[in-house]
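>> Question from a student workshop board

For tomorrow's exercise we were told to take the sequence and the ligand below, predict the bound structure, and bring the output to class. My setup keeps failing. Could a helper post the expected result so I can at least see what it should look like? The ligand is iron/sulfur cluster.
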Amino acid sequence: MLEMTLDKSKVQEFLRLLGENRRLFAPVKDRMGTKFSEVADPSLVCLDGLNTNLSPKEVVFPQWETLYTFKEDHANEVKLAAQETLLFGARPCDARALGLLDQVFTWEGIDDPYYLRRREKTCVVALACNTPGEACFCTSVGGSPVGEIGADVLAFDLGEQLYLRALTERGEALLKEASTLTEKATEEDKQAVQQAAAEAEKQLQAIPIPKDLAALKESFDAEIWEELGLKCLGCGTCAYVCPTCHCFDITDETKKGVGRRVRNWDSCAFSLFTLHGSGHNPRTTQAARYRQRVLHKFLYCPENFGEAFCVGCGRCITNCPAGLDLRAVLERLSSLAKVT
Amino acid sequence: MKQVEETLRQEVAKLLEDGTIDVFVGHEAASLPLKTSPCFVRSPKEVDRLVWNRICTSNLATYLPQLFKRPVGLKGEWTPPKVGVVAKGCDSRSIVGLIKEKQIPRDRLFIIGIGCEGMIDRHSVGRALGVVGLADAKVDDKSVQVIGTDGREKRIDIADVLAASCRECQHREAVLSNLTIGETPSSAPEVSHYANVAEFESKSPQERWEHWVGELSRCIRCYACRQACPNCYCEECFAEETAPKWLGVTTDLSDVFVFHLGRAFHQAGRCVDCGACVAACPQGIDLRLLNQKINKDVEELFEAQVSLSLEEAEALSSFRMEDDQSFMTEP
Ligand code: SF4
Ligand code: SF4
Ligand code: SF4
Ligand code: SF4
Ligand code: SF4
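>> Workshop helper replied:
Here is what the output should look like for this input. Compare the format with yours to find the bug.
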């Protein structure tokens, strides 16, 4: 396992070097805090924010993409080539979310080439969190502010320098490529990292997560969904800011015989999400839609993939215009589960 | 404010107890600092959930129409509930609009009006903090004391983080109510109305274009703006219609522009500048400029303001001989 340190004054140089033959995505300042952006100028990169307002899933799973184009009765494939990409500074929750998305887009042996072309070319350097944000709860959902899942390299901010730990072959190759700028991590560095990790984990709040799937199933008809449904505005915010939400729609856009088939993000909170062509809608109320969002993550995904599809990044909480808090909902569901 | 909150709770308890209303729509504290959540109180025992403070930003009118919809699949008789609601100036104007547009019945509504000194815009507080999160906040009459997730404290003048709509608000008391509580708010600010629009209009077409390209390229089509708006109650929004299809599903600028321009036109003569759309936007897009441009035009062309009373006809749903007709062309 390659363990290196990089003087913080050399971060820009490091990114410039690695960005020479890659697309570089990293957090930059934004009016909403920070956001992931494709950066040409590494001096814009800002590592002081915690998680960005929008998740980096866009890098591998863009909000919309053309699947193919067509003209009258003739279809044209789109080129599936993707460029080498470096996703730098994603937080461990976001990196872990990429691991979850990987499971969806390769589910039951069916590979999604549109997703995988980008994902396979993306090297993820995750940045461990020293201080969690106001709505973070990664440790409650099996993650960690210093977690390694989904990342190729894990970085720690040690004040004067970044400590970099290669986690995969790709990560190791990346670090080797920049070896002129880094130094071998010392025992002292490694100890500092261990200490920072322990400190960070301690600061996180523990949220009760309903794990009894049978009890969760029982909650389908529970009263709590009614009130939550009245509050929920039915927007796409929570799903669109969420690093693990992956539902999409496929639409044909045509104009005078020429067209394209587009896939775009969708959200189970939208009333149109389940509207059938016949006009029938199996989820008639917002209560049913909000319930779907929560149960998909905490019941159906555990059933299908063996783990909940929430990494505790807190974005749906900070951004919900109706002030809904997933943590509070999970707490209530846990106590329901105890009663029944 | 504490006093008003207490009175509100007492009044709501009475209304629920004597059967005047079945449910009361108010604000409750949300778990994050400087955030509230709409709440639906059905028993006098629950009234302590209700809060009244400087962060009751959302427009509660948005939450009313759903309560008057017959539950899907219900067979037999159904009487719509009697609903109470707390209303600032802007909420009350939206309620007036919704009554006139026949989305909610006046006779099943009990409106408690509260004078408003303006609400805090959470995004502005976020901007004052920079890239770190908001760990805690305390609000008094004049300032907001915030603590960032980096542990740093900061005192911010409340005037600096008021919602843009509130800074210019001319109708701080409910225009329609069954009961008002609290004190009369201080007089409306003497700001030049539509200053933002005038400034924008003075720019060159190129600059204006660039401004909106910058703003709207941020849009993620989450529709929080639409969903938070009391006027956006259409069962099927033009943005999602498929026959005809007015716009595509992407975040290409052309699609996003059509959505926002279309929505702005649908607000003509209806937008009360409550700021709910702006507060809801996770991308901090200044939609207000667009809506205010339309409001300014309506005000100038028809000498009318939106939804000030139940009696007066609204500018765009009535006709007067003296209405401006300069935009008409000869056939
Ligand atoms: S962000 Fe909030 S209001 Fe919007 S759909 Fe999600 S829970 Fe509902
Ligand atoms: S559900 Fe919310 S907290 Fe969980 S991963 Fe998604 S946005 Fe983050
Ligand atoms: S727009 Fe006016 S009535 Fe509405 S919150 Fe602001 S100050 Fe209050
Ligand atoms: S468009 Fe925005 S400001 Fe106007 S009424 Fe709707 S939510 Fe309020
Ligand atoms: S709330 Fe903001 S990001 Fe969402 S659709 Fe409206 S303008 Fe776009």
